[in-house]
Amino acid sequence: MSSSSDQTAQRRLAAVLAADVVGYSDLMSKDEEGTLARLRDLRRQVIEPRIRIHHGRLVKTIGDGFLCEFSSPVEAVRCAVDLQETVSQVSDGEIIKPLQLRIGINLGDIIIEEDGDIFGDGVNIASRLQKMALPGGICLSGKVHEEVRDKLPYQFEDHGEHRFKNIGRLIKVYCLLAGLDPSTISSEARPASSLRDRPSIAVLPFVNLTNDPEQEYFADGIVEDIIAALSRFRSVFVIARNSTFTYKGRNVGVPQIGRELGARYVLEGSVRRSGERIRITAQLVDAASGVHLWAEHYDGVMADVFDLQDRITTSVVGSIQPSIRAAEIERARRKRPESLDAYDLVMRSLPYVWALEFEANKEATRLIDKALLLDPGYPLALSLAAWCRGQRIVYNWSKNVQEDKRETLRQAQAAAAIAHDDPFILTVLGAALTITREYQRAESMLERSLTLDPNSAWAWNRSGWLHNYQHDPEVAIQHFERSLRLSPYDPMAFNCDMGIGCAHFIAKRYDQAAQWQEKGLMAKPSAAWIHRTLAPSYALAGDLDKGRDSVGELVKNYPGITISDIIAAMAFSKEAMSRFAEGLRLAGLAE
């Protein structure tokens, strides 16, 4: 290297990802133009966007491969898994041999040239690891594994130490995603809960009802934001923008659009400006029936146009998810019992899952267990099974707490190992880790979930409870309030009221604690477990008569329950637990 290069080159620690396309030469020999076109599309539509999403930098492309760097090894591994899964989905069903990647990741010192290119052992080891990986697989160095093993819910395989050419030391190697050729998997072997079972939505370009071309750009920006935000929902398949924007300016009916795009639901809207005032309308339509499932309008002023855009995106996405869920539940209800598959059974279970009642929990468990018999690897069913077990522990319904704790964590981790970037499934794992009182890992999972989907009302709810358990009531209240803003009509809204009530209890504001829990109980009178924290709130607020009445309601639904039973089920700090126990004692509950 020249002296001028020495002056311009820099060094830094980075996670380096190296990848190439498997069997590229063979593919080129059979169809040079077609292979080049497929590779170009793959880079533009999958590789480059995924690297950006995970905060990486594409350093260069080299024929059939590419090299990129990340400041975080966690993001590098997440990106690698995301790439492999997305490439697999894109290639699924191709008649010609599908494209597959091999990926290697290393954490090490790199040299950065003035033009942005990178060199050094950090890069060389990543390249050697990439050559070791199986098609569809990922190999990472021991350094990377050390950084990510407790932060990501993946199963890593230890492949021992290896000596690489021109590297003077042994390198510990771990593998992730062993690699699988999709052409070897029969249709019968594919999971029942495949991409095609998910509800699909097309977000159409919003109609500009004014002559101002600036509103056209504003409307398109909102639609693009909504598509990006909806794409975070793994339970919904979102039709790509390039497909939906072909309908811009065309007068085509929703049923026809649904048929042409294969969309079950269509979101349409409009933008109207009058002076400085602007109004956005949005409505969700069942494409098959033409029935409107949800509609709303948003008003603002042009001076706050960017804040308005963010608010609309958040509100629309927060409302669409429960609306689609309700429609999917109703669709499953209309099916004949003998034609139900795993997806339908899970949809039927959801109202019972969210009821947070003893009998409902039993029915939810029955339906989910039936779904898992049909499809043992269905991640949503595994996750919901874990959450149902978790409810039994938290609400004093469990007959074997230790076994339920083990199974809750096992099922939640199994679901996350399969669907490691599904925000809902990561939230359930966070909740399971809260139940086992592993708060640091729980926080990591919930943060990951909210990074993937900042509009998840339930993730904000669980984060609120986690902050309660960590004796941080003010942040807990903020997170519950955000959950309520995102989805005010959600079946779990009463649980946010309860969470805010408990936060006030932790902060020793007992009157407010009782008021918020009363609100939750009014919304859900059958949730008798609320009296476990409502009774001590009354008692410590000085209203012993209400406290005793509350304990009476509790004992009526939980015969023989004691203070020690309740304390064993809850996960608050010792200081808060001692005050709950004191309040229950004052209200007359047995030790």
UniProtKB/TrEMBL annotation:
SUPFAM superfamilies: Nucleotide cyclase, TPR-like. GO terms for biological process: cAMP biosynthetic process; intracellular signal transduction. The keyword Lipid metabolism does not apply. Residues 15-130 form the Guanylate cyclase domain. PROSITE patterns: GUANYLATE_CYCLASE_2, TPR. Pfam families: Guanylate_cyc (PF00211). One of its GO terms (molecular function) is adenylate cyclase activity. TPR repeats lie at residues 423-456, 457-490. Keywords: TPR repeat. This is Tetratricopeptide repeat protein. It comes from Microvirga tunisiensis.
